[in-house]
Amino acid sequence: MNSTFNSFFFEDDGYYPNHPFLPTLFYSKAIDVSKEDVTQTLAKNQWSNQWTGGVFDYHHYHSTSHEVLVVLKGAATLTLGGPQGRRIDIEKNDLLVIPAGVAHKNEGATEDFKVLGAYPFGNSFDLKTGQKHEYETALNEIPEAPYPEADPILGKKGPLLELWV
């Protein structure tokens, strides 16, 4: 499989803090395995509290945990970083690692779009929607989100460990 990798930083806009120093990681065509294999790979690399479904169609973020999204089926356009952020197209076999605080929104998807989501160490997560009253609390919580000890797919030798030092 011909995989490519990109990373993106997003600025704090006063509503969506994004992450002050960790980039969002985008692995295009990162996997070519069944859902069961992906589930096992994520668990082996300590990404658990797994779920399957879609991505919300409103800007939101998690301030207490980082998140991985693996596209199992279909395709979608996501906006990352809040309303002034960056649109990316994702499709089956792509993977996103979204740092705590980084806003994400589904702008449109194929009918069969499905992702597998997970969190480092099975961490629980919160849901914030860019309301001004959430902002100050989120700024304190984001740096406290536990750092993963492994890349969700590549384990101890993936780009996450190189870029999230």
UniProtKB/TrEMBL annotation:
UniProt organism field: Halobacillus locisalis
Top-level taxonomic group: Bacteria
Domain Cupin type-2: 53-110
Record's protein name: Cupin domain-containing protein
InterPro entries: Cupin_2, RmlC-like_jellyroll, RmlC_Cupin_sf, UCP019307_cupin, YjiB-like
A Pfam family assignment: Cupin_2
Coiled coil segments of this chain: none
